[in-house]
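2024-03-11 09:14:02 INFO receiving multi-entity request
2024-03-11 09:14:02 INFO entity count = two
2024-03-11 09:14:03 INFO echoing inputs for audit
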Amino acid sequence: MIMDYDVIVIGAGLSGLIAAARASAGGRSVLVLARGQGVLALTTGCIDILGCLPGSEGRCLTDVAGGLQRLAAIDPDHPYAKIGLDLVQESIEFWQQVMPAVGYPYCGSGAVNYLLPTALGTVRPTALAPATMAGGDIRNEAGTLVVGWLNLLDWHPKLIADGINDLRNRRGLGGAWSSVMLDALPGAAPELTPVMMARFLENAQHLELLIAGLRKSLTPGTGRLGLPAVLGIDEGAALFRQVETRLGCPVFEIPAGQPTVTGLRLAQLLIKFLKQYGVGFRFNVSVLSAERRNGAWQVMLDLPGRAAVVTGGALVLATGGLIGRGLEADRTQIRECVAGLPVAGRDLPGQAREASGWGRDPFAMAGVVVDGRMRPVATDGDPEQYRRLFVAGSTLAGYDPAVGKDGLGVALATGYVAGNAAATEG
Amino acid sequence: MDLPIRSELDKCIKCGLCTASCPVASRTGGFAGPKHMGPEMTRFRLDDRLGLEAQIDYCCNCRTCEQACPSGVKISLLNACYRHDLHTRQGLKLRDGILGRPGMMARLGSLNAGATNYVLNNRLVRAALDRGLGIARERPLPAYSRENLKKWFQRRRQPDSSPNKVVYFPGCTAEYNLPEIGRSVVNILERCSYQVILPPPNCCGLPLAANGFLEDAARMAGQNLDNLLPFVRQGYPVIVSCPSCGLALKSEYEELHNLPQARSLAANVYDFSEWLLTLQQRGAPASGFRDLALRVAYHTPCHLKAQGIGQPSLEILKKIPSLQVIEVDEGCCGMSGSFGFKKEQYRLSLEIGARLFNRIREIAPDLVASDCSSCCMQISHATGIGAVHPAVLIDQAYGRVEEKK
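2024-03-11 09:21:47 INFO inference complete, emitting structure
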């Protein structure tokens, strides 16, 4: 039978995009189907591999490599444990190969965490950070100035400096953080969201005004400048480099607001790169169902007024969890929406939900159970019905990204393995 | 309302404690409670101090927001209804009525196309249109063709009748302004052994809806349903070459105008390239392409993206030997049909498309290809590089030379 594509990926979040990248790198023709833009733009774009071990009461992890080994030993149902740590490492290397070509390079080996400041003055452990953010590690003892503008919404430099100073004092670190609030950016709207400000700064003249204002606020004691993540969207890290070079002072971005400039950058640049690389995309299309028939996956699309079929040799489900609506919950059950896969923990909604501060949420833990190659583990029926089907990202069971701080890390690793399997397994 | 009272609204964080404590709401379902009746409803009753109401005209109806929304909210439909409501209250603009009726204007303008084009290019006329009506004088107006598509279709020798029939809905541009698009589409469909049926020329109604004339748009939609449904009932597909017409026929007739039977039309409407690509995938004469030594930049129109059919034209163009096609992928061109004609929006429309134009200048192609004539118009205006509908290139690749008159 003639197939439209070798591999069809449903979902344009990080796991779907990585699966598509990997399958395409394996020489396969790939189509990505997406309902909306994907919620990658709502993340910071940091690849959190592992920030916290289960049962550690929310303690921040710095040794990621050691943490992963510990996790694999105590939690065999976690996606990392299933994949195996070698493949997790391989997915990190794949990421570090791809991102410079995308025009949005990342820093980090994946073995240790950066401790980066958040817009609330707390700390976020992350293993792979965009180059524009990696310079903000709170353990760096350079004198740090956090800058704000009066017309930028949801950005409070003093809150950040105070919060980080508090954390640094407790760790006994030198080099205080200070803050400055600059006048409203001339020519900009009286109230700017970070995304609006980023668009504003994509104009070269506006960027000049920003650089001039920043230069005035530098003092001899300023070792580095902390800015909200507003340095353009479409140009990747280019405006960041420009600002840093022109000021002659290290700069780092702190993601702020929703959607986040750094998340938008990642989503848009990655999609654009994959398109140039030959991956096909169909946005604004809902998938009604997917079925294996005559040795191929038939994906039914909901077009205006009618359904249409697209066929593929292999299928990657990267449709998201309850938030991305790859999983759907009613009062009695959680179900997987596209292929009707069995869901572990599906009977949750009827039960009382355990409430524990640091405990993993059973709704987050519910999902599709897979083997180490991201193939669904069939509990009933004909195993042939799931042949060449691979599942990645938050559709999977067995992890809670709010607790483990491993959301995009699991998306990367499982997307990589699913894309690899879809490209190679017969 | 005084501003201090207005600021009360922003204090409310929608927690619902007031309603939970309200003695009346706790006894009757007939009162929605303080949160609902107070801050929420007051917001709806506010006079327009922020000046946001009139901003609705800056929604260019491109549908990009709907494609971004992960929850499938039909934002453009909400805006279309609101625009209608506002303009009905405040009085509709003559200018918007003219821009909303490209078909009617074209029927008038085509009576003597040469004279109309001459007059519309006159600087004094353009100054008057600018000042009197608010149509930007810098914006080139589309010229009317001396021979519209229908006349050409009737004039030429009809090919032999085929059992395979398709209906072609050309829309206003391919009918009156750029009938070469329509001629190419007809040629290609006939080459694929279809007999082409042209319904009576009529606007799809989308420009009316985009300018706030919902009733008129719905009437237009009703006429098109009357014209097209008899063919649909006989099993003939309806082909459109304009992405905005496609969007109107496929989704607006049902979602915006709520017309009965709109769904059975929608189920049978195909974009021209969507249809051709399907034919080619089923083995239609894709192999018949000859060399076309051109460097072409392809731009995907927003209204094609909104249809969720991918980029069929791009896929077809890639199959033409010697044709180097580069996807531009820099988002909306800013024209959005009538949006870029409006005096107050002309500059903005060029700013919206600036990245796209820069990228096209970088690529420096021989030609730009885009399915939407409005995008083509904007891109040519901004870059000075010619822009054509992909059907024209595909037609050439199939070996056709434009006839001389």
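2024-03-11 09:21:48 INFO post-check: The radius of gyration of chain B is 24 Å.
2024-03-11 09:21:48 INFO post-check: Chain B touches chain A at residues 66-72, 250-251, 254, 263-269, 281, 305-311, 327, 329, 355 (CB under 8 Å).
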